[in-house]
């Protein structure tokens, strides 16, 4: 069974919950599985984020920003910077096939803003976004986009 590599960060558990559902869906519908690594756990275990990624991967990222409205003020990333450090290291950005953002729509313009900042800063596309733990509809839509992206780049 083909494995799809995912690097992500989850602080409240919502992104991990979404990825579990996405993995289950991929196994059932695509006969593929996700191999997802929470970079927060790497840091907690004392592992360095200075390592080379040598295979295509996807990134999943919730938005945690410092105050404000996300446009004029408050667009400074907080809490999720370990994922940024990993992607920024060496040539890791070149292997990222795209990012999926998550967040809470109550934060209006800040919803998924961090994913769009990563896309701008690192030069890969935002594939999609979902709110909190996501829905079954989100899982199906995002699985389709990830699979389509894998076909586009012939992985």
From TrEMBL:
GO terms for molecular function: FMN binding. The gene is nrdI. It comes from the Bacteria. Coiled coil: none annotated. The lineage of its organism: Bacteria, Bacillati, Bacillota, Bacilli, Lactobacillales. It comes from Enterococcus lactis. It holds the Pfam family Flavodoxin_NdrI. NCBIfam families: PRK02551.1. PANTHER family: PROTEIN NRDI. InterPro entries: Flavoprotein-like_sf (IPR029039), RNR_NrdI (IPR004465). This is Class Ib ribonucleoside-diphosphate reductase assembly flavoprotein NrdI.
């Amino acid at each position: 069974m083909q494995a799809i590599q995912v690097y992500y960060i989850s602080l409240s558990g919502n992104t991990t919950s979404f990825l579990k559902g996405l993995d289950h869906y991929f196994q059932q519908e695509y006969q593929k599985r996700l191999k997802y690594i929470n970079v927060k756990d790497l840091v907690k275990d004392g592992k360095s984020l200075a390592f080379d990624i040598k295979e295509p991967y996807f990134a999943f990222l919730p938005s945690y920003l410092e105050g404000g409205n996300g446009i004029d003020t408050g667009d400074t990333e907080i809490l999720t910077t370990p994922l940024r450090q990993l992607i920024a290291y060496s040539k890791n950005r070149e292997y990222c096939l795209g990012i999926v953002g998550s967040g809470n729509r109550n934060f209006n313009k800040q919803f998924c803003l961090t994913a769009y900042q990563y896309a701008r800063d690192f030069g890969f596309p935002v594939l999609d976004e979902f709110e909190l733990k996501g829905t079954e509809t989100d899982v199906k839509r995002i699985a389709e986009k990830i699979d389509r992206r894998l076909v586009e780049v012939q992985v």
